[in-house]
Amino acid sequence: MKILSGIQPTGRPHWGNYFGAIRQYIALQDNEQAFYFIADLHALTTIRDAAVLRENSFAAALDLLALGLDPAKATLFIQSEVPEIPELTWLLMTVTQMHLLEKCHAYKDKKEKGLAADAGLFTYPVLMAADIIGYDSQIVPVGVDQVQHVEVTRDLAQRFNNIYRQDVFVLPEYRVLDTTAKVPGLDGEKMSKSYGNTVEIFEEPKKLRKKIMSIKTDSTPVEAPKNPDTCPVFTLYKLFSTQAEQDALAARYREGGMGYGEAKQSLYEKADAWFAPARERRADLASRPDDVHAILSDGAARARSKVRDVLARAQAACGVGPRR
Ligand code: TYM
């Protein structure tokens, strides 16, 4: 199976990124081909500061490696180091109907708010389609918010194949985990940087505890029974615990006598223990930046050699590029 996914370096990654996507990347990295990249070209639609973007991209590489991405198994690279992708984007752009992009949520949301969108945001899904089909990807592990983009990718690939009457591109499928398709944030809404309701994966223990303690709960008194299913603390606790642990905490909610503070403390302990080894690995990797740069260079070289083949196929189909 050929796997591919990407993450934007727009800020520190959060639990939604981890449980929705990154954990899947790691679980799937033993496949015959796993390509994971840092989507810095996409991030240009929101970050306009060179130093910040470079720093974020490098930090994202540290994050993925620390969380368990193994460069001996998966190819890790930075999107902009594969210039064949923007080339492929243009070929796709010429078969992209405007109405398809007009309904894509990032653009639509901005427009509905009366904000001016630039062409980069409008054509964002075409670049993403090139990312995906450029590697003949079959499976794209993502959270539910990216499903629409994978569907657009399928449409574009199919349309290109139809127009040129050849199977140039492979049609990809998304892979979304049922239980973590849409991880909620501190307020119960989808966890998202733009809602300010995130918990960062590499949060310092002290800050982590403070954030968890600040989760809004209802005013049921300590003695009274509580409903775990409507409690954001319990929803997040489920991410980190086994079924038996969940059942035990749910029983404590229902029998009464447990304050929300205690549930928050349990969530804090679980989350802290879960990410502690990754925090240590990250500190170690950060002290060896040259090794990380070498991993990224090697990844970009591997990625380019794959995309070159796909691009050559696409160019041959539509009659551009060097004659072969
Ligand atoms: P990005 O950077 O916004 O998010 C990275 C991944 O995290 C998932 N995610 C979530 N999953 C569950 N619950 C949440 N609350 C949550 N928040 C984020 C996202 O679904 C995503 O899988 N456009 C992409 C980057 C990209 C890409 C690609 C992805 C560029 N090219 C090609 C796949 C294939 C994005 O902005 O993801």
UniProtKB/TrEMBL annotation:
Keywords: Aminoacyl-tRNA synthetase, ATP-binding, Cytoplasm, Ligase, Nucleotide-binding, Protein biosynthesis. It catalyses: tRNA(Trp) + L-tryptophan + ATP = L-tryptophyl-tRNA(Trp) + AMP + diphosphate + H(+). L-tryptophan binds at residue 131. Homodimer. A motif ('KMSKS' region) lies at residues 190-194. InterPro entries: aa-tRNA-synth_Ic (IPR002305), Rossmann-like_a/b/a_fold (IPR014729), Trp-tRNA-ligase (IPR002306), Trp-tRNA-ligase_bac-type (IPR024109), Trp-tRNA_synthetase (IPR050203). The gene is trpS. GO terms for biological process: tryptophanyl-tRNA aminoacylation. One of its GO terms (molecular function) is ATP binding. This is Tryptophan--tRNA ligase. Belongs to the class-I aminoacyl-tRNA synthetase family. Pfam families: tRNA-synt_1b. Its EC number is 6.1.1.2. The lineage of its organism: Bacteria, Pseudomonadati, Planctomycetota, Planctomycetia, Planctomycetales. ATP binds at residues 8-10, 16-17, 143-145, 183, 190-194. It is found in: Cytoplasm. GO terms for cellular component: cytosol. A motif ('HIGH' region) lies at residues 9-17. Catalyzes the attachment of tryptophan to tRNA(Trp).
